[in-house]
Amino acid sequence: MKKIAFLFVLVFGLTAGCDYIDDPIQGGDSGGGNPTDSLVQKVLVEDYTGHKCPNCPDAATEAEDLKAIYGDQVVIVAVHAGFFASPSTGFETDFTTPEGDAMNGFFGFAAYPTGMVNRKGYPGQHVLNFQAWPPAVADALLDEPRADLNLTASLDGNTVTADVEVIYQTDLDGDYAAVVWITEDGIIAPQVYVGQTIPDYEHNHVLRTSLNSTWGDTISSGPVEVLTPYTETYSTSWNAEWNEQNCHVVAFLYDMATFEVLQVEEISL
Amino acid sequence: MRGNRVVGLLFLLFCTTTVFGQIGNTDLGQIHGNFQTDFQYYREDTLIGAPDVPEDFLLNGFMNLNYTRGNFKAGIRFESYENALLGFDPRYKGTGIPYRYATYTQDDWEITAGNFYEQFGSGLIFRAYEERGLGFDNAMDGIRVKFQPTKGVRLTGVIGQQRFYFDKGEGIVRGIDVDWNLNESIDSLANNRWRVILGGSFVSKYQEDRDPRYNLPLNVGSWAGRATISRGRWTLFTEAAYKINDPSTVNNYIYKDGHALLVNLTYSRKGLGLLLAAKRIDNMNYRSDRTATVNDLLINYLPAMTKQHTYRLPALYPYATQPNGEMGLQGELTYTFKRNSPLGGKYGTQVALNYSVAQSLDLNPLNDTTGIYEPGTDGYDSDFFSWGDERYFQDLNIEITKKVNSKWKFIGTYIYEEYNRAVIEGKPGFIYMQAAILEAQYKISRNHTLRFEAQGMWTDQDRGDWAMLLVEYSISPNWFFAVQDAYNYGNPEEIRQIHYYIFSMGYTRGGTRFLANYGKQQEGIFCVGGVCRNVPASNGLSVTITSTF
Containing domain of residue A100, as a range? Predict the structure, then answer.
């Protein structure tokens, strides 16, 4: 009987382990990206946030840290939606958009800050706490680029126009759509932050509008012609309250069946 | 399609229940189980913040089916969230069988394959359990072996992954526990007045490291030792736990080890009960996924050391253990003044006095250049016996229960609370609250009872003062009807001085209970580990049906 007990302890005891870490910080250069090479996989980090959400500034910092590591390979968009984003006394600025509200409902965000990394894992595994973004971004960057996405944009009077070119790099068969957004940096407005309100918080990467609705427009349907350009032009009205100098245009290509983002691009307006 | 298969399987199981039982001398085993469904119809109410629910109706439901025959036991739980009720995590979505198990017992062995719940000691390093009302379920999916090598000694070993909504967390949890009852084990101690039970556990989790910033421990081990010592009316329970470096979301990726200590001393005799408890928690958030927050993938359980108030108004400010660190004390005295004494009257008088406090740890920087909780460092130093300056929570309450005559019984409660909203919810502010509740029961006749509650809650912070009245009429054993109104008359925003009324009725027969509520429920905020979830206000009709068979 003692032998059996010993065996029991051995089996369950030895399966468990402990790893003590002496050097927590990774030493190697883990990124930096190469902004001149468009044929790299880029990653869209959607940060679902709100100006009354106490922990959302930490998520914004996490996203910026990732951008510092990976450079232009990481594209951040802050989608203000949900309970914490609604305007109220002291928080009058309305950062919400109809597109953000629709995505917030569709993807089922209920806790903030949370977000998605290339919208991977839908359904069920797509909503990620912001602390889960670093490994998810690292994973997504390992994907072989399936499409090259080229983007140009211009503001002419009251109209902003964007040209999107998609060049598939591999055989694909399905429905793929492109979405084009305008984002704005440097908006100063109050933000709750763990136990306090920061009156002059700088809101960056704020989603302002979509040039082609919430779910975008189909770029290709069925088998694709590899290395052949698929091009579309989109435009929308400009809002005079946005600061052109601080705005970016973000375009991404996604699989309409899985919602996974294949490629994303960001340029200054 | 998946749903159809599940319904088919359930139908089959129901049909076959008639077959089970005893046919002649052949024991075909037995099926038992329980069922619950919560259904709610929602109406948008912009004034209280009740959102528009596109589906109009939401539903949570589950059924447990357990089959037993001889030494063999097996079961499944069917769950359905179409879609989940507001306040539940929307990742509970759809229908399926997330819980299934088979257990075989023989001699000193018990082997379970599949899902199981288990707890080592008080749970400081391992507790797999469910709180269905909160939508919490961290059931293990793997193997559990229990073994009794000798009288008074019980070994439990577990290996598996934890439930994550309709999926599993990626981490693997392994553990072993020993429980040693000295008085059972050692014949010479069998009749000793001292009773001693010792226990010890070791738990470890494994998770891959794909973080671009830090070198993370793949295996995080923890261990705990415990003792229950009793003599006569006194019982002392203590448990201490230790966890190695476990950088995670909740502790801001610091590499400090974790500690926990619990001490409970109780005394009880007829008419008198005394509890003294103390705890120290230091960096003991322990999950099978280091990025998990809120209630997701918790391996351990850090017991609350504050009274959980159940009356509707004081329940607005509940306290939850802060897993990153806290010191806590609780004392409770329950005394019954004897019958026919000056204070006891004809039926005796019960008094329960309870006090609890939770305070921060005393944190000191590691050196002049490293900030407290700086990621990638050991975080901080903390003297074991030293208390921090920041109060998280304090609660002093007294409850007096008095039966006046055969018709009337009263319960009077007074509560004073200090609630650190910034720590508990992450929202600015500190709330000082007083509440007084008078509950009265009037027995009209043998089967007819009226119950009244008058609650007042006063605070200068948050939503200000509240008053509540409740009247409940019950006809035992089948019916009850109730109406209540919580009025936020002191809300600083006049437009939000709202009546949150609820009409309720319930019907019970046999093992089945039907409960319906119609009215408005106020919103609340639920925050753990740096992520907050809004439990929205709601307005509408809710129906709950429970059944056991």
Answer: 36-268
